[in-house]
User: Fold these one by one.
Assistant:
Number 1:
Amino acid sequence: MANITKKVSWSSRTDESGAAGEDTPLLNGSEPPRRSRQDSLRARPKEIPHNEKLLSLKYESLDYDNIENQLFLEEERRMGHMNFRCLEISRWVICGLIGFFTGLVACCIDIVVEILAGYKYKEVKENIEKFTEAGGLSISLLLWAVLNSAFVMVGSIIVAFFEPVAAGSGIPQIKCYLNGIKIPRVVRLKTLLVKVFGVICSVAGGLAVGKEGPMIHSGAVIAAGVSQGRSTSLKRDFKIFEYFRRDTEKRDFVSAGAAAGVSAAFGAPVGGVLFSLEEGASFWNQMLTWRIFFASMISTFTLNFFLSVHHNTPGELSSPGLINFGRFDSETMTYNLYEVPLFIAMGAIGGLLGALFNFLNYWLTIFRIRYVHRPCLQVMEAMLVAAVTAMVSFTMMYFSNDCQPLDSNSSEDYPLQLFCADGEYNSMATVFFNTPEKSVRSLFHNQPGTSSPLTLGLFTLTYFFLACWTYGLAVSAGVFIPSLLIGAAWGRLCGILLASITHSSDSMWADPGKYALIGAAAQLGGIVRMTISLTVIMMEATGNVTYGFPIMLVLITAKIVGDYFVEGLYDIHIKLQSVPFLHWEAPATSHWLTAREVMSSPVTCLNRIEKVGTIVDILSNTSTCHNGFPVVVQVANSDEPAKLCGLILRSQLIVLLKHKVFVELARSRLTMRKLQLKDFRDAYPRFPPIQSIHVSQDERECMMDLTEFMNPTPYTVPEETSLPRVFKLFRALGLRHLVVVNDENKVIGLVTRKDLARYHMGKHGLEELQLAQT
Amino acid sequence: MANITKKVSWSSRTDESGAAGEDTPLLNGSEPPRRSRQDSLRARPKEIPHNEKLLSLKYESLDYDNIENQLFLEEERRMGHMNFRCLEISRWVICGLIGFFTGLVACCIDIVVEILAGYKYKEVKENIEKFTEAGGLSISLLLWAVLNSAFVMVGSIIVAFFEPVAAGSGIPQIKCYLNGIKIPRVVRLKTLLVKVFGVICSVAGGLAVGKEGPMIHSGAVIAAGVSQGRSTSLKRDFKIFEYFRRDTEKRDFVSAGAAAGVSAAFGAPVGGVLFSLEEGASFWNQMLTWRIFFASMISTFTLNFFLSVHHNTPGELSSPGLINFGRFDSETMTYNLYEVPLFIAMGAIGGLLGALFNFLNYWLTIFRIRYVHRPCLQVMEAMLVAAVTAMVSFTMMYFSNDCQPLDSNSSEDYPLQLFCADGEYNSMATVFFNTPEKSVRSLFHNQPGTSSPLTLGLFTLTYFFLACWTYGLAVSAGVFIPSLLIGAAWGRLCGILLASITHSSDSMWADPGKYALIGAAAQLGGIVRMTISLTVIMMEATGNVTYGFPIMLVLITAKIVGDYFVEGLYDIHIKLQSVPFLHWEAPATSHWLTAREVMSSPVTCLNRIEKVGTIVDILSNTSTCHNGFPVVVQVANSDEPAKLCGLILRSQLIVLLKHKVFVELARSRLTMRKLQLKDFRDAYPRFPPIQSIHVSQDERECMMDLTEFMNPTPYTVPEETSLPRVFKLFRALGLRHLVVVNDENKVIGLVTRKDLARYHMGKHGLEELQLAQT
């Protein structure tokens, strides 16, 4: 959509593989990418050119495939039945802890936001009331805007300056992580802290955001932390759960954490499990699913329990999630067959509006990548948005003359009288002068007639643009609640219009809450396009399965309509980050491609017993930066392929070099300590760079025996294998490197994630993305 | 648990592989299995010995792996973007049809059962009322027993004599199918017809059975039929959907069918999707999940619509499934934190009772396999059970003096007065003199006090044994409803006891319906042990997510407790059938086994250009009956392994032989028609046996070129690969044959499903099952 780029040749270099290409991939067809990166380090240019038809080389893959080397197999074979049972119990304990801490974090966020927002709205309300009569409401507006901006400034500063990866909802990042991509710093403790404080600030700052999306990210970070039994940031190692210090196990726990996050956010444990499976799992393992389910359950339960204590009703398990849609009573709110076409139509509207939202946000994000990339600019933009939000809300309330009688059992927390008569309140304030969660609930449950069509229409319009502007700011915040709010507003509007068209105030048409729910589902579906998990989340959040069927219909329609125009919001942001994301299947028309054409070659191979100097040189070669090296029997001639006998990773070689596991040819150093799996686990996941390891000239002459450490049975494919077949193997097993061999088992290439992610279906058939060091 | 058997040597022969072993696996360590099979064909012995530590060789695998041979690739490469889009649309259309027909079948079953059962109960009720005063109730009993037996006789005869695979709920068979095992005749039209009529007869016959399980099987058969666009039984080919005539596509549709079945049975579309994924998918594909979801939706919608028409309330979508738990109102039925331990305790009881049920049924099934294997015996047993059920029910009602006042808005369809005063009815008759679905609903929703503890206790006891005796009869019937009914009865009993202990008739303890629901979940979980799908099914059937959390807790507890004693009911029956079922993961302690030890060898290989006579001889060898043959470059010496270049299946060779795709060495027959994919698709899935193909002596001398037809890129593993690694590859990709090669890419063995299914965790660590021709 943006720039048009030239295709790079097949053998472009990747940082995953040991394949060395001759040609350098070009950024925008003109400038070598490495120079541009160095430039950007020296002095940030005013405009950063961006091209979404690129795949970034800076993202590495997770290894979902176990490295079954001799050390690993020996350990596994030593372990008895009881050991495995203990491990299984530890897994359950960890999942329980993940759920507990996720619930706790959600609870903290909820309570702190409640207190802060309560303080803010109270102050502003008093101020407004003071100045309504006297005139001079501009002072109230100023107070409100300043309070908002102050909160948002704090939230934005910590995100922009300390941990930019904590920006946004975190769902795209977690999607990528579960897809098998290592996003730097995404599951660190610091990210969690910034995320939690950031989301509190942005919600309290009155932005058009929700605190639900960030919960998913928070859950994932908690999972990554708890499951490793240590914190690298805090330099504490509890010496527990050491068995789980590898990507395979960690990723399983992160799935559980993400599910626990969804569960805490929406009170939807089943929805959480489905979310994790939908986003993460190319596999489905029953025990894993159980554990994810367990974590989700504990999470919602913990949140529920602590919130009930906070609300002085301990033991009353009525608030399972951060957002609570309130009770939809199945008696009063039924639907009928002839309403089904209406629901479908609303789904289509949701799809259209969602596509518009995504499209606007796409351009905005492109603009931000180009021009708003300095932290101070980002903070200023966030503050501006906060001030504008306050200003727009205030203006809307000021000019609205939709007054409603103040009911004693109304759900209004901060009813604003403004220019209404005594005993009445401003209806526009219901939706603007409130936290978004409460506004959603009012739209679902307020009695018919509590807001005029004009109020709802104006609200939809302004909030749509505010939410669109807000998503992508350097603050930690989610898009679920704003989407629901927009949808609920126009859904309620539809309901009111329908009732007025049919002139039947007592029929079922008259209940605008039902249409608000359907509208909310349609809008959310149109923006994020999640599927079956979203249905279940909505179903669980309403606490009523009666609406399961219409919600499904609406979501499917919204997805079909929306997909026709533009992708889902998360997918757009993933694409803009040039992440090598692997979809479910290879493009349909890619059967004409074979492994031979897809793979990177020639490959940098290592011998089974290799000179230390050679290894150091290969690892130090910054122009290739390979991560996996096939081990071959003997490289006789560098042009001729040699027989494959294993695969070794950069991280393993680094550990070997660090521990100086060398074999001196002259006198064999028998005192050498035997390396154990523990050494690899201790170094995981932050392996030192090769530059930090000193290898003397003497040592360079030593040899290293890789036999014990390499994976002796890497997965291989013959060179004639079609791309869909390669893709299927790669995706189903979560591989990082797939060796391509000829019919004599000799290495001729290596397929990595980027080689596969390059191909995607464009408007005009199969397209190929460029690889670049962005 | 039964006989103890000797282990067979590693190289035992399998019917899947091209591997030829020298030794014959022994049945019970004494008798060659093939002779015993021939014996059984000649004259059925009085007692059939059974040993569950066997894996039967009669089950073949489905090929979930596409055969990407030249023909296939050429076709795929010819197809443009639009063709793939059309295919995708066809898939959606098929899923819609599957859902529609499944809903229709469910609707038919429901209506016919309602009519028949209504007729029966009316007759018997009139008869009882006539004789209650006059004395001579034994005539009523006789009438009831004869009516029941008559219905059951019809149902049992069609099952036992025409289609034994239609017996039972069909869920174990569908589990196996989705696991990748070809159960003979399981998805045929005849099976569907027998299933549908059978279930109508057995439910109308008053057996302790449900009609929900069979719906899952019915959905699967419908899916298999619709997706192929033809019926082999009816000899009609509609010439549509020809692309889908292979195992990969068919299995996907069968998943959708099973989900549609669950959806129609319980009104649980999400639960249906989860069921299919839990049982079937070793993969998770988003588009597939969507389609499954769509089929489920259409299915429940169709059922709902037609039932609403039948009930003269068209358009009122209130009965989404065959079983309807009725409305659980969230206002009156809440639960509190201190009830959670109670729920867990009830889960444990459910687990214990479920284990007892399964254990009794296990011994009964062993007994049946040994002694009740003749169809006429089976019919007689079924009739006996029907008569006994009537007799027991009658006795219970006769001796019960639990009379309840007859309420005008009571849900009783056939209130029996018996010896109660006028205006009262017999409470025992509520549960016995009714279809099981309605009894479940009464137990959930009747007012507190409608049945005495004694009634409930006696009912639980008798129904438990009746249901246990019934499951496994040669009738088509499910175990869901009886389980729910038993659980609801003792759950309600628990509720009543709790209320009487706490002496608080007005507190929430007093609502026995809540405990009935929890008890039903616990009992069902204890018997079938399904997990997350069952939670969602229960949640959707109650139409209320408030109970989601307690139901989860109960199901988890029931599963943990039950698994401690004995497996789930379906797993027991799968095991008793000696099916080579692959679980989620390889046994934990199997890392010491490698592909070399697991594989079958030596392997019967074919040359790329092979003599027709050789092929015919290999295929005709009934003692091996191999299904897949590695194609090698040249077998120089049969002892030395040759280089792998492809894999070909028996079914493909049969088609090639049938179409005489020979190359005559002397004069090249250029007029030969080029074989197309269509020829293979037309022959699918009932490939003729080799005996039916006549090959003349001349033709035997011809050669056959396999290059175009073999899969040139079969998946391979090196011989040192550990069993878990082999297992993971095999399971994740749904393979049928996995070639084991040495480091020169030469074939040294073949791993098939049975080689992997042989290893399982027993009480004393890893155990190995025997292979036999049972």
Note: Residues 1-44 of chain B have pLDDT under 50 and may be disordered.
Number 2:
Amino acid sequence: MQNKINLERGFSTPEFEERLIKAQDVMQQYKLDGLLLTTPQNIRYFTGYDSQFWESPTRPWFVVVPASGKPIGIVPEIGESEFKKTWLEDIKTWPSPRPEDEGISILKSTINDLKKTYGQIGAEIGKEMAMRMPVRDLFKLKEIVKTNIVDGSDAIWEMRMIKTNAEVERIKHICSIASDAYYDLPSKLKIGDTEREAVNKLKIDIINRGADNVPFMPGISGKGGVSQIVCGPSDKVIENGDILFIDTGSTFDGYFCDFDRNFAFGSTTSEVEKVYEILWHATDAGINAAKPGASTFDIFNAMNKIISDGNTVGNNVGRLGHGLGLQLTEPPSHRPGDNTIIKENMVLTIEPGMEYANGKMIVHEENVIIRKDGAELITKRAPKEIPIIK
Amino acid sequence: MQNKINLERGFSTPEFEERLIKAQDVMQQYKLDGLLLTTPQNIRYFTGYDSQFWESPTRPWFVVVPASGKPIGIVPEIGESEFKKTWLEDIKTWPSPRPEDEGISILKSTINDLKKTYGQIGAEIGKEMAMRMPVRDLFKLKEIVKTNIVDGSDAIWEMRMIKTNAEVERIKHICSIASDAYYDLPSKLKIGDTEREAVNKLKIDIINRGADNVPFMPGISGKGGVSQIVCGPSDKVIENGDILFIDTGSTFDGYFCDFDRNFAFGSTTSEVEKVYEILWHATDAGINAAKPGASTFDIFNAMNKIISDGNTVGNNVGRLGHGLGLQLTEPPSHRPGDNTIIKENMVLTIEPGMEYANGKMIVHEENVIIRKDGAELITKRAPKEIPIIK
């Protein structure tokens, strides 16, 4: 329970004002008269509003951020009383469900009322974004508004990629909670646990330590490594010689950590030990390469050189780390072709992986925040040698 | 731990064949040459494939269901090995992330290869659906495929609204787990708990009893009722005279329950007792009205009559229940204007609520499966009198 510190949830009005100023600056750069937002993360970023009702796809929620002035909320009546507690002043509602006009007519007049400087607004229609509204309604909206709806995702990511201090505090907090839970996990694991049992031990500990939620926790085991890292846990019993890979995206106040750990059961092999050590050093190289002015490709190369020297079979992950924040994964990606320039206050994963033999993969992962002089590690570094569960 | 029965996760190939036959029948009715699927729930419905990686928005996943023949998977390389374990035979991959062509060129050729009978395919662009892909890529796709992409949501909901026996089994199982956890909760609650502490007690118990996940668990308290049911829990301390409302959408093998419970702390008032009783009877009326041949409006009316007689101030929820299954809420909605005809094997919530005084709301909820002769209750009925936590 050592993580139950008094980091308050929620953000101050000056925090949202700071975000809005940054947004309006970026909007001018991208020649946008406004932003149309529909996803929980983007709405939360600009308003602080969070809802359990995101889980129900019935009702869309909208926020319009104008090029000047405060964001405007357009929300189903069921959310009105709580939305009024945000720093927003202009909140419009409609009685939902109402499929024939699920907020679209209010959205139309709100968008048409925006000051038209550039004649276009940005929506979440591009990079690593999926709108949370029926596309049919977006088509309808495009026809009835007197402005162009263009891709606003690059503008949105440009803001969200650089974290404020208050955002960093939350990410550090959830990283600390998960780090401590991972650290205590070996004492709770035993040969004969199923993958699901092992995962639940960690999940419950993370909840008890003060996390809000655990939306992401794959747990996969295999002899000397795992064949994949995207599905699981299953009811497979973990046996002598297995390696258990657990990854987690747990959240505090909406913000994610994203890092994994590996545990050997019973015994290990010199090959596993060697691969684990290579990845540990690749992680170091990635952390050292992650500094303002470097590119995501530089970070990739620093890790990839060490992995390649270690005779990897391949890696189907497609990248060696990425951004994180209100989402488990956010731009940029450490991979050839991304070439984003690293800036102060980006929060990134450093995630080298190796398939060292067919179907035997080991992946390491740590989280860092970029400071003026380089990366600050915000996870408690994985042990240099793979922990062995007896 | 009494719910840890041996209901296996995952479905048999005959189950998917049955779903496919139903789908292809509906597709013919809607004159569709295929379905383009992107959401976790729709992909899981047709393939059984589940992934922790849905949580990362970086990579889209696609399934095309042709009017004849088996579904085709188009998935990022990272998911290939696990996707190959599904009953699908035709699986195409691309190295992702690759934002300049995130699966779109393979999707194009797959769609163009479909037999063209009607010249149109259905996508998740309508009712209560949001596509899980960048809309920009959908625009691009619309331009490069030789078929029309139209709204397929009505066709998809027509299938998914009627549950198979195997689906019903899973929903019943998670309802049973949550019912037992709710039943045991009063012994764990105490005056002075925060809303968050109360919620976590239930959440951890539900996980320990064998649920896979708890994506939805609002917990809100207030004097004599709650002012809203969409946000929370917070760190508010629950005091004498408060009512704690907890709702949960927990999952087993992808399938949701969705029902709530109310707990009075310390003492209660005759007004609360009366409202609770009215809602208990309204629930009864809703359950009795839910039978094949009735409409969602009939179910609404049966409950609404009792609520109106009880002098409700209003209800901003906009409906008195809905469908559930792979999603927390699915069509239909018990509300004026919906008018869906109830059929055998629909799974529905019966959810009457009353704001009996300004800011004081109580909501009841149970889940039923529609049988030939009427509704079968699949939650353990809320107690007839509100439980009081001393």
Note: Chain A is about 30% helix and 20% strand.
